Amino acid sequence: MKKTMSMIAALVALTATAVAMSGCTAAPAPTTSASAPTQSTKLTVVTHDSFNLDKKTIAAFKAQTGYEVTFVAPGDAGTVVNQLVLTKDSPLGDVVYGIDNTFAARAIDAGVLSPYTSPALPASAKAFTADVADQLTPVDYGDVCINADTTWFAAKKLAVPQTLDDLLKPEYKGLLVVASPATSSPGLAFLMATIAAKGEAGYLDYWTALKSNGVKVVKGWTEAYTVEFSGSSGKGARPLVLSYSSSPAFEPKTENLNQTCFRQVEYAGVIAGAQNEVGARAFIDFMLSHDVQAQIPEQMYMYPVDSSVTLPADWAKKAAKVDAPFSLPSAQINANRDKWIKAWTAAVVG
Amino acid sequence: MTLRRDHGRTWVWAVIAVVPVAFLVIFFVWPVAALVARGFFDASGFSLVGVSEVMVAPRTWRIVGQTLAQAAVATVLAVLLGIPGAYVLYRTRFPGRTALRALVAVPFVLPSVVVGVAFRSLLTESGPLGFLGLGESFAAVVAALVFFNYSVVVRTVGVLWSRLDRRVSEAARSLGASRVRVWWTVTLPALAPAIASASALTFLFCASAFAVVLILGGSGWGTIETEIWYQTTQLLDLPAAAALSVLQLVVVAAALVAADLTRSRQERALTLAGSPVDHRLRRGDAPAAVVTAVVVVGLLLTPMLTLVWRSLQTAGGIGLGNYALLAVGDGRPSVWEATANSLVTAVVATAIALTLGVMVSYLLSRRPRSVAGRRLLRWADAAFMLPLGISAVTVGFGFLITLNRPPFDLRSSWALIPIAQAIVALPLVVRSLLPTLRAINPRLQEAAASLGAAPARVVATIDVPLAWRGFGLAAGFAFATSLGEFGATTFLARPDRPTLPVEIFRLISRPGAENLGMALAAAVVLAALTAAVMAVAEYLGPKEATSW
Lengths: 350, 548
Known about the structure:
The structure holds two protein chains of two kinds. Helix content of chain A is 39%, strand content 18%. By secondary structure, chain A is an alpha/beta fold. Chain A folds into two domains: 35-141 and 265-318, Periplasmic binding protein-like II (D-Maltodextrin-Binding Protein, domain 2, 3-Layer(aba) Sandwich), CATH 3.40.190; 143-263 and 323-349, D-Maltodextrin-Binding Protein, domain 2, CATH 3.40.190.10. In chain A, strands 1, 2, 3, 4, 5, 6, 7, 8, 9, 10 and 11 form an eleven-stranded mixed beta sheet that branches. In chain A, strand 6, helix 6 and strand 7 (216-218) form a beta-alpha-beta unit. In chain A, helix 6 packs across helix 11. Chain B has helices at 3-38, 49-56, 58-91, 97-109, 112-123, 138-161, 166-174, 179-207, 211-217, 224-235, 238-266, 286-311, 321-324, 335-364, 371-383, 386-389, 392-402, 416-438, 442-450, 455-484, 489-492, 500-508, 513-544, and strands at residues 41-42, 45-46, 92-93, 279-280, 313-314, 317-318. Chain B has one domain: MetI-like fold, CATH 1.10.3720. In chain B, strand 1 (41-42) and strand 2 form a beta hairpin. In chain B, the strands form three sheets. In chain B, strands 1-2 form a two-stranded antiparallel sheet. In chain B, strands 3-4 form a two-stranded parallel ribbon. At the A-B interface, helix 1, helix 2, strand 2, helix 3 and helix 7 of A face helix 1, helix 5, helix 10, helix 15 and helix 17 of B.
């Protein structure tokens, strides 16, 4: 028995060694050489968890390039960017898709991307590159907006509200449900919309007024839309919900409030230190190809950056593009995100 | 025990100890330690500034308080309700008992996102139980946590209870002790190790609950786990996450120590019956039966039936339309393909968890003669429970910075999914096997050895038959845990090869009645699969146990 015990003691020592080892995991940083791009037969694509494309399209990409392609989808845009920052010393993959404008500046500042300008980038997409220079390539965009249950408003003979200020009116008291900016990316986008509209000086006053008017804040989009919203199959109690400008294409008896929207742009980029830079670039070009761009509305609920792609019929009717959404520079978002959320939490949640 | 035999056994012990410890170090301790260590280093080297800032913030302590309150209340309730449940389901006999046992196990492995939505639909202003006003409240979180963990108490306690030799309590009764007195002086002390185990497990699950807390707790409610998730995935504030991880470790360790103290004070060699002891449900069992019926119908069945009912609602009325859609992939893996992926992953994860779990339990059930040896074993016991209480986010992000170079370059490998699931299932396997293994009277083993039986023969003829019942349960729990695991899997799952819970989460996060309907139908499929697995485990268990 004594032997057993001394062996267990040895194992404890082994554990301690492992813990100590973990303190020195820093490896030499990969240098992005100006020489020829790296290439390999394997390609690892890191995406957010909403990534979705037709299997046949992906198979065609594999056949065309001959790469053995692996997809990893570790979470939402924030999770993806933070994982890339964390693994800068030994990159998680070759190419990333799904970084959005609320997190782009963090990825760029941390130096986790390699510059690339895709020859496939359509002219219509140039408008989305201001924030990201040659580090990220815009692939699609969408608008986070308030949606209304038109049946409910018709039954009550009440006009559907139009603007952010309308939401403060007494006739709309207790009708709105939104997702929390602290736990949800559409929630964060709506906070940004109010900051863009009311300024850093005024957004908290707006939220205080919204709170007095009975706004309900829930964890995420799912709880807001499928449980609390009266216009979805969940048949909740509230006829106004934070969702996307594209949602009415899927719930016909709802409509979008075009003057409450915040623009989200999703990008792809080559990961710095990629083993297969050639493949990474090919994947970005592939994301801009007509075939992929045409699938984006149905598969990922976003608008393609290529404006020559025709939207599906339901979309043209119910989910038309928003003309003048609110937006904020990515650098400003990155510098203030934490501060804004904390201030919002203190003001609204208490 | 002769010296020669001791030498011959050393290498066996070495394998039994090294394999699970190495596994835990590589796939758990190292990743977690590496990530937490990052929080203690800034640009200029080692620094306590970031961590200490978080430690003194009032918000941190409010979160710790909320975590403890939520876990403590839910654990006490689960134990109080679970003990009558264990009695009715394991000590009495009635038609439909096997089905009921399986049913009770289902909530435990349901994806928490789906349970959150089911509870919310019930409790929201316009829901069937909206009048209770519990939409977003402490009570709602606690109810959901009890929903998840009721089966942990029922099974852990029930399995031991079913094997308690009736003769001891009968002797006490015949000596004139009242039923209450027998319960307090004979039955409860005998069950104490299992109750301590179940409480520790439940507390760890409740303290580290994540999605349910976010969904039902409302935006002001936060626990250590949700805060670690937020600081790590959204802000990448590693010092804050490290400080919280250290606090989490302290809470978990305290819970384990408390459970261990209870257990070691109470543990004794029990007289176990070879086959389960039960009796027909009788009038005296009415209070326990009523409590159990109320819990099963009110707390377990109502949310599950809400789920089934909502899964049957389609655009064209009530029907199976959502289920028909499960076969349609629409260009990506269908829900049935995701189900197949989940089953394959679960088989691998169960195999890993059982192999390691048997080794660990066997090791931990030994009774070393030296005080130091016993202390070491108790530490080892606690160490194997840690994965339950440590944030999946910390483990998932830890994988990224440790398993990133050969020979462990596994970050984008499918193999990491069953491995991560096995780590989560391992404590459950150990907890299912240990109480029965520990309760085996050592005199039986000694008697066999002194009669000339080789160690392997002692194991084969004494330990294995007695532990078999625990083994079926352990396999069932491991398989079901793996089927339902979401927290760690979500960081590792591959979009082209999703597991069922990940697919449910994906569907429920998209607009349109059809996606929600499919998500709920898929959740019902997951629940049915789980019930089937637990029923099989139940069925395989008792018949093999032979009397001696």
